């Protein structure tokens, strides 16, 4: 009881301490932290949003517009510096002539063509000149990046430099009407398209699943370049098929999901997911996928499926290897050992027997995998070892997919048949 009374007295004394309000020096200390109001309906939030909008608008006005870029192109061509010594007849310009261009071009150009930029764009020309095309492309690229940053920042409600999942979702949804290659998509499919496009951003740029992505990372990733490609009405078919954000790609992925969903409940169970691709994913691997990934009563939704597809289709990427390593690391120990490798390869051997093939010795495969990865610890393969080796795609394919294993096993025969694969 004595301790309780003592605590109460000290607590009341501390609580009644008014030093902060009575001591005049506290008023002289500047406040360094101002919390951001999360309530969108509050007056400070609306004021902040309006101020940011005006600031971004001013920044947008400082960028080169189409007319100014066209004028810049003409001036660069007019003041190019002879002689023409390049094999591809690319026109060059020295810094003195570039200054003439800057004087006659829009004042906005000055910040683009500084001496340091000019020096960085030089390519060992005997007359210290720079390619006109390189200068113009630099101005174009920088303008586009700044425009993109401003466009993305408009969706950054808090002004903290990142977009939440809902922010990026709205950005992509409002971008659809500006992309002619997506004109053929039915409006009812737009929500699925946005989900498909959004997952690539989240999978590669938010591997820790924080639910937000830095604007800087979005710009650096190059994904926006792929989206902007869809503004080209004459985009070749092969480029459309290889572009995750294209209509054919989105329809392909969603169509695969619907085809796998045999019971038409909008979700995938283990048996249904096993039919993905060539249908040669091992049952052990699929079982582990459902253990590690987010499921709903043992079934996988479209978002989780998209992550799975992105991981399998990009097995060479560090984010995909991180995703797949978590599945392969059955004991959550941070590395793969002989037991882990054997656990998955036994399923490959079982598939061989089912197909009437003689199983390959695990000992041979194990030695090959360790030789391939060259781990720092000869008995353990870590994720970093896999990434450093550059052989992550091969290792994963050997362990999870019979077709992937045979592709690797018969690589020499395939090269002999088609030397162009070398």
From TrEMBL:
InterPro entries: EF-hand-dom_pair, EF-hand_13, EF_Hand_1_Ca_BS, PPP2R3C
GO MF term set: metal ion binding
GO cellular component: centrosome; cytoplasm; nucleus; spindle
Subcellular location(s) per record: Cytoplasm; Nucleus
Residue intervals of the PP2A regulatory subunit B'' EF-hand domain: 156-233
GO aspect biological process, one term: regulation of dephosphorylation
Entry coiled-coil feature ranges: none
Keywords of this entry: Calcium, Cytoplasm, Metal-binding, Nucleus, Repeat
Protein name from the UniProt record: Serine/threonine-protein phosphatase 2A regulatory subunit B'' subunit gamma
């Amino acid at each position: 009881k004595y301790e309780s009374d003592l605590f109460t007295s000290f607590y009341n004394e501390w609580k009644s301490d008014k030093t902060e309000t009575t001591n005049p020096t506290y008023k002289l200390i500047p406040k360094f932290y101002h919390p951001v109001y999360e309530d969108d309906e509050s007056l400070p939030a609306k004021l902040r949003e309006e101020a940011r909008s005006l600031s971004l608008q001013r920044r947008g006005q400082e960028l080169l517009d189409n007319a100014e870029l066209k004028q810049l192109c003409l001036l660069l061509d007019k003041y190019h510096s002879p002689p023409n010594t390049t094999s591809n007849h690319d026109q060059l310009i020295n810094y003195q002539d570039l200054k003439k261009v800057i004087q006659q071009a829009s004042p906005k150009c000055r910040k683009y063509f500084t001496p340091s930029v000019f020096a960085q764009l030089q390519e060992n020309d005997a007359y210290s000149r720079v390619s006109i095309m390189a200068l113009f492309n630099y101005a174009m690229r920088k303008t586009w990046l700044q425009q993109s940053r401003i466009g993305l920042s408009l969706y950054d409600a808090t002004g903290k430099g990142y977009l939440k999942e809902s922010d990026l979702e709205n950005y992509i949804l409002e971008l659809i009407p500006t992309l002619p290659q997506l004109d053929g998509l039915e409006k009812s499919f737009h929500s699925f398209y946005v989900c498909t496009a959004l997952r690539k951003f989240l999978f590669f740029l938010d591997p820790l699943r924080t639910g937000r992505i830095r604007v800087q990372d979005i710009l650096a990733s190059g994904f926006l370049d792929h989206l902007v490609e869809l503004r080209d009405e004459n985009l070749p078919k092969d480029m459309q098929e290889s572009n995750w954000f294209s209509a054919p790609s989105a329809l392909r992925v969603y169509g695969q999901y619907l085809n796998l969903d045999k019971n038409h409940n909008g979700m995938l169970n283990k048996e249904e997911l096993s039919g993905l691709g060539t249908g040669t994913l091992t049952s052990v691997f699929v079982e582990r996928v459902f253990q590690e990934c987010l499921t709903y009563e043992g079934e996988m939704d479209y978002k989780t499926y998209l992550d799975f597809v992105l991981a399998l289709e990009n097995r060479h990427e560090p984010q995909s290897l991180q995703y797949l390593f978590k599945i392969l690391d059955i004991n959550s120990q941070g590395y793969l050992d002989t037991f882990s490798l054997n656990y998955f390869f036994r399923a490959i051997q079982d598939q061989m027997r089912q197909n009437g093939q003689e199983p390959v010795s695990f000992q041979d495969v194990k030695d090959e995998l360790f030789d391939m990865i060259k781990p720092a610890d000869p008995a353990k393969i870590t994720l970093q070892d896999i990434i450093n080796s550059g052989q992550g795609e091969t290792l994963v394919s050997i362990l999870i997919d019979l077709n992937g294993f045979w592709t690797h096993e018969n690589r020499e025969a395939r090269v002999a048949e088609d030397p162009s694969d070398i």
